[in-house]
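Extended Data, panel c. Modelled sequence:
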Amino acid sequence: MMLTASGARYGYRRTLPHIAGILGGCVVLFVAIALGLGAVFERYESVQWALRLAGSAYLLYLAWRIATAPPPNLDDAQAARPLNIWEAAAFQFANPKAWIMGLTLTASFLPANGSLMLNALLLALLMEAAAFPCISFWALFGRTLGSRLRSARSWRVFNVLMGALTAACVVLIFSD
């Protein structure tokens, strides 16, 4: 939802740093999980709970920003900006979906033989190479939608819908 909203508002090119941040943040997170951070996450339920709370709080904050964003104003195009590479990368450490992907990736596909660091890095890079077209699709889909939103009212409806769908993800975080 975040990439769709960003693609609609800013276009694909201006959303590329957000995409790069997701990819880079996930590589770092997945390697960290493979090197032992995943074991801490799996062993201590309090860490899982803290991640759920932090991820949910940040998702709700982003959902609010999306839902209350004003329609694009060509005179004020430089004031608004998508998430930058560092913000998107940092978000992956509070993103429960990224943690689940990293834990599943590591448990399912990390080779037992060879260098742990090299295997983890190669696996994470391969995963993100496959992810790039997938997440690009959402930004491009948003760009296509954005080009069809022709009034301030349609932008407000779109922003509220994207914000609500982003906030709805919090329900999934707490459904076990």
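The chain is about 80% helix and 0% strand. This feature is highlighted in the accompanying rendering.
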